Amino acid sequence: MSPLESKAAADGEFCSPSGPIEQVRYACSLGALASVIAIPGAIPITHCGPGCATKQFHALSGLNAYQGGEFHVPSTNIGNREVIFGGTDRLDELIEATLKVMEAGLFVVQSGCIPGLVGDDVASVVNKYRRRGVPIVFAETSGYRGNNFTGHETIIRAIIDQYVGAYDGPREAGLVNVWSLLPYHNPFWRGDLGEIRRILEGIGLRVNILFGPSSEGVAEWQAIPRAQFNLVLSPWLGLATAQHLQQTYGQPFLHVPAIPIGAKLTGAFLRQVTAFAGLDPQRAEAFIAREEKEYYLYLRDFSAFYAGCTSQYRLPSQLVVVSESAYNLAVTRFMVDQLGLVPGRQVITENPPQAFRDAIRAQYRRVADGVSAEVDFAEDGHLIRRLIGETDFTGQLPIVFGSTWEGEVARQLEAPLVEIGYPSTDEVVLSRSYVGYRGALALIERTYTTVVRASTMG
């Protein structure tokens, strides 16, 4: 378990409210198996009860924008016998069998609730195979230890410590490790990571993006210690990893809390990275100029719609965003700063650690020049509906950016709904991106297509 997760568990930061949560917005810690699946060349092996692994992945993929993915996850599917006698023998048999029939550059053994409760010594089983030279690591991801966000951090720490290991060689100038969106939980993670890689390469960096189709997989993880620096591109997820890498390899890190959307914010982000990394500013400015030229040509054409259709369609003026913090902050900043919407209600749903919440709140107090907003942290659907219901929309036309769960409250507000977060059952997402230059154009398209349809249907 990472220091962040250990402290969080001790402080009760990831404990659910007393009683059940209505309309849950995340998976349990075991759900971080999706993060392993997102690494090309890696396979998770789960030591847990029957059906746990399947339910976690299909909740994060199948019921969340129908993302698909290679789900071939060996599992011990332990039951009553293992509760009484322990399940390490069964895990040993499973690993041995898996190595005979499956090929991978890295295997990640994850333990679930049952072995955690009965005290299975999973590490000793895994270490036996590590001594044989098998590329295999162990991560304790019992469901009660946190959600899939903290499980993600735990898995990353396990791979770094047990697989990547010690390194005392030189660092490569211009190579960066990127820690950003949570794979599968964010429906647009694949396209977004691809766009992040593209724009960073555009200013002269070589990028270990680490997850998804844009990654070279296990080879990138092996190259982590060689990177010049780490880039944390999210409000909090990845910070514990960057701090650990700083302690382990002496790598500095740059933390950019808000993922950039649109030309203004993306340009500012790229200039910040250029200065931090000591890159050629002329090359960066040339890339930014090319991207902005194309971006603003598209935006010029969009302005004809925006200026000419205000009487025909109910164009929104006030913003409601209900999602995990990374997208919540990014979408809020873009919609307020670039499209002129008024911040209404912003609700963050993934239960971020208490230690980071004040810093997250501070980001909303400077969401745009002269504009501030408040943010709420809520996991329960009933509470989220109540918070939105308490919002003053007098004289405003709201638009809701959220999940499928926000469908009913959007109907009550007579507001368009753009699905951007977990769970998303009315979207099919493959490579779509909403960040950077190209992603911003896609987000504008999706937003105002939804507005037009809502206006004509209404």
Radius of gyration: 22 Å
Q: Structural class of the helix and strand makeup?
A: alpha/beta
Low-confidence stretches: 1-16
Give the overall pLDDT as a whole number.
92
Task: Please indicate the count of domains.
Answer: 3
Helix fraction bin: 40-55%
Largest sheet: 5 strands, parallel
Number of helices in the DSSP assignment: 18
Instruction: Give the strand order, joined by hyphens, for the main sheet.
Output: 10-9-8-11-12
The CATH homologous superfamily of the largest domain: Nitrogenase molybdenum iron protein domain
Task: Characterise the protein shown here.
This protein is of the alpha/beta class and 458 residues long. The chain has 18 helices and 12 strands. Helix 8 runs parallel beside helix 11 (239-249), helix 9 (189-202) runs antiparallel to helix 18 (436-457) and helix 12 (263-277) packs antiparallel against helix 13 (281-308). The N and C termini lie far apart (51 Å).
Short description:
The protein has 458 residues and is of the alpha/beta class.
Layout of helices and strands, plus pairs?
Layout: H1 3-11, H2 33-37, E1 42-47, H3 52-60, H4 80-85, H5 88-101, E2 106-111, H6 113-118, H7 122-131, E3 136-140, H8 148-164, E4 172-179, H9 189-202, E5 206-208, H10 218-222, E6 227-233, H11 239-249, E7 253-256, H12 263-277, H13 281-308, E8 318-323, H14 325-337, E9 342-348, H15 354-364, E10 375-377, H16 381-389, E11 398-402, H17 407-413, E12 417-419, H18 436-457
Parallel strand pairs: 1-2, 2-3, 4-5, 4-6, 6-7, 8-9, 8-11, 9-10, 11-12
Helix pairs in contact: 8-11, 9-18, 12-13
